[in-house]
Amino acid sequence: MRRVILHRLMRLLATLFAVTFLTFSMVSLLPGDPVDVILGQADRTPELEERVRSDLGLDRPFLERYGSWLGNSLQGDLGESYITGQEVSQLIKDRVPVTAQLAFMAIIMAVVMAVPIGILGAYKQGKWQDTVSSAAVQVALSIPNFITAIFFVWIFSVKLGWLPNSNWVRPSDGLFENFKRAIMPATALALTQMAIFSRLVRADMIATLQENYVLAARAKGLSDRYILMRHALRPSSLSLMTIIGINFGALLGGTVIIETLFAIPGLGFGLINAISRRDILVIQGITVFVATVYVVINTIVDLLYTVIDPRIRRS
Amino acid sequence: MTTVSDALDQRTDDDNEALLVVDDLRTHFEVPAGSVKAVDGVSFSLARGRTLGVVGESGSGKTVLSRSVMGLNVASNAHSTGSVLYDGQELIGRPIKQMKDLWGVEMAMVFQDPMTSLNPVVKVGRQLTEHMRHHLQISKSEARELAVELLRSVRIPEPDERFGNYPHQLSGGMRQRVSIAIALACSPKLLFADEPTTALDVTVQHQILNLLGQQQQERGMTMILVTHDLGVVAGRADEIAVMYAGKVVEKAPTETLFAEMHHPYTQALLWSIPKTSNPKHTRLSAISGRPPDLINPPSGCKFSPRCPYAQNRCHEEEPILAKGVGPDHTFACHFPVGSPASQEAFDRNLEAGLPQTLAAAGRIGATEDLPDESWQ
Ligand SMILES: Nc1ncnc2c1ncn2[C@@H]1O[C@H](COP(=O)(O)OP(=O)(O)OP(=O)(O)O)[C@@H](O)[C@H]1O
Ligand code: SF4
Ligand SMILES: [Mg+2]
Predict the structure, then answer these.
(1) Do B107 and B89 contact (CB within 8 A), yes or no?
(2) Is the confidence at residue B376, as pLDDT, over 50?
(3) Disulfide engineering: B61 pairs with which of A5, A14, A108, B246, CB 3.0-4.6 Å?
(4) Distance from C-alpha of A53 to C-alpha of A44, rounded to nearest angstrom
(5) Which of B121, B131, B166 shows the shortest C-beta gap to A220?
(6) Cβ A216–B120 below 8 Å, yes or no?
């Protein structure tokens, strides 16, 4: 077990190295010159441009820049925003809780809806319950989440006036106010996830229900409900675990549209702002942070397999 | 006034009363190509405490038969008709809800492969106790006590420790012992053992079969022992039913069957008993040809394309299950082995150079070195 973890850690480091290098190169390849954005159109002299460029270190070769960025970031220093002068690590620290809250709420809601729907679909395979739930899931899957979000806003903010659709409130400034603002974007995100999760659970469950040990459990006269929950659910949740990990990571970096739509000060909104301003170090910082979390989560998921399936523990 | 002997008679009558009466049981599977007649008109009755051996090669319908009797054919394309009387109650058409009251308590099954019939992610202890607690309404600690006792009775060393193990932590033989313990947990009256040893090492096979037999005796259980190996049921079953293509083709008390088998297929099965000295001997190699298509079975006798004795009549007219000489001996064959007609048929086919007859002729010459000890 220890060796497994050590092995995973090594792999984690290698992946992170590759990820930072790739994002660093991609960000440097972004079209547009940060100097343009910083100086604007007025009063530009070549000397001034030169100074800004060397202040930012943009005159140094790529590998050198990457090397010093890597060295600094290993010490927790991700640099500062060109525009606001704010430390990137502080900016991330401020924004992560917001996005993480959304992602977390979305995933929890999705799992809570998806598992029963998936189990029902598998258990009643081909019957009307399956047909109806599959159709609903298909609909949820094909509507992009920002459309759902806009629809929610139209009903709950515009028509009914129940829920505010902007002016984010942090949980520390009022839990209920925070919840009122988080529920619409989180639900919009959750519906898509729910659709993906429930399809996986259904497919895995159908396969598990063919297993001999399920027949053996039936032959013991146990109730269907017990067999589904005790015998079939756990072996059917390996793919679900994987996809939860992947999608949680993806939600951390990928709630851009939803965050923009609700003006939520999370990572995605921050990333969009930084991109439009060519704020290279912020883009770089957020991207690397998201990638890191992503890789770490997937490593954790790998380790969790052993909890679900005791057979893996030995090997 | 009832005398002692009357009372004894009375008792034997009760004891002999059949626990299970199966009549014209058919299970067909609807598939796009047609209807798979996996079990096609099987009838037998089984008295309390007795063992019926069901023998046939792969695909003959043994598993479907035992699951149909138990009402456990879960495939949605399966359809069973006929009658299964268990302890006087009709099981065919009985709602699943009511079947669940029988499964595990009244009748239980030991499955073929303990690698797949135990849930890999559920501890042995739970798999042993869950149905006890469900059916017997006992507490967790009572169930645990019973389970450990049960593990001990199926000769599992350190039962306390095994209770907390996952199946993969046990060897194949141990797992099958656990499966047997699970099946015995609620003291069923009727036990199905569907090739309980096929997946195991030869040395372990005997131990498991002996364990089953011994538990059956101790508990007075009725048992249906399914196997493709006549050698397995030889010393262990009271009666043997030989299945071919979903039908019983010969049935007799064990000694009668071995003393005077009449069906050519039974004879072929006998030749194919794996020799104990040569355990990896290819099974059923003595029967040439493949099992028949169950959707469009051959006309006449279903064994006719492979039978060394087959005559024209066999290809046209299906033989019915008829009484033989011995008591309770039935078989379905136009040219029963041992009759002069069969000898003539055989000679005729030999002359005509029928491949399966030539193969059988070679076999008959070699019958002398059959390993008697494997079925005695
Ligand atoms: N759900 C199903 N749909 C269609 N055909 C089926 C189904 N289940 C079983 N069969 C068919 O029924 C026939 C009998 O199968 P069965 O498993 O009873 O044979 P068996 O005698 O137990 O063989 P084995 O020794 O291999 O276990 C086979 O031809 C099989 O393909
Ligand atoms: S009826 Fe004919 S083909 Fe069928 S088993 Fe008997 S001899 Fe063989
Ligand atoms: Mg079988």
Answers:
(1) no
(2) no
(3) B246
(4) 13
(5) B131
(6) no
Q: Is A223 on the interface with B (CB under 8 A)?
A: yes
Identify the band that residue B319 occupies on the pLDDT scale cut at 50, 70 and 90.
Answer: very high
Q: How far apart are CA A296 and CA A16, in angstroms?
A: 9
At B242, give phi and psi (nearest 5°). Answer: -100, 125
CA–CA–CA angle A49, A53, A55 (5° rounding): 120
- The average confidence (pLDDT) of chain B is 86
Ranges of chain A whose pLDDT falls below 70: 1, 41-42, 312-315
Nearest of B30, B33, B99, B106 to residue B68 by alpha carbon: B99
Chain-centroid distance, C-alpha A105 = 11
pTM above 0.80, yes or no: yes
CA distances from A168 to A86, A271, A286 (A): 21, 17, 20
Nearest to B117 among A212, A221, A310 (CB): A212
Q: What is the mean pLDDT of residues B145-168?
A: 92
CB pairs under 8 A between A and B: 79
pLDDT of B157 reads 92
On the CB side of A84, how many CA atoms lie within 13 Å of its CA?
A: 11
The interface predicted TM-score of the complex, written ipTM, equals 0.85
**B122-125 contacts: CB < 8 A, separation 24 or more?**
B122/A230, B122/A231, B122/B166, B123/B163, B123/B164, B123/B165, B123/B166, B124/B162, B124/B163, B124/B164, B124/B165, B124/B166, B124/B167, B124/B170, B124/B178, B125/B163, B125/B164
CB B179 within 8 A of CB B111: yes
Distance B64 CA to ligand 1 centre (A): 6
CA–CA separation, B313 and B171 (whole Å): 52
What are the helix (H) ranges across chain B?
Answer: 4-16, 62-70, 96-99, 114-117, 124-136, 140-153, 159-163, 172-184, 202-219, 230-234, 254-259, 264-271, 312-316, 340-352, 355-366
pLDDT tens-digit series, residues B215-245: 999 999 999 999 988 988 988 999 999 999 9
pLDDT at position A131, please? 94
Q: Whose CA is nearest to atom 31 of ligand 1?
A: B59
Ligand 1-lining residues (CB < 6 angstroms):
B 29, 31, 36, 38, 56, 58-64, 75, 77, 228, 294
Question: Which residues of chain A are within 8 Å of residue B125 when distances are taken between CB atoms?
Answer: none
- The CATH architecture assigned to A96-314 reads Orthogonal Bundle (1.10)
Taking the centre of ligand 2 as the mean of its atom positions, its distance from the CA of residue A264, in whole angstroms, is 83
What is the C-alpha to C-alpha distance for residues A21 and A24, in angstroms, rounded to an integer?
5
Which amino acid is residue A6, in one-letter code? L
- pLDDT range class, residue B364, cuts 50, 70, 90: low
Q: For B101, which residue in chain A has the nearest alpha carbon?
A: A221
Tokens, residue B368: 């002398």
Least confident of A272-276, B195-199, B279-283: B279-283
Q: Are A128 and A171 in contact (CB under 8 A)?
A: no
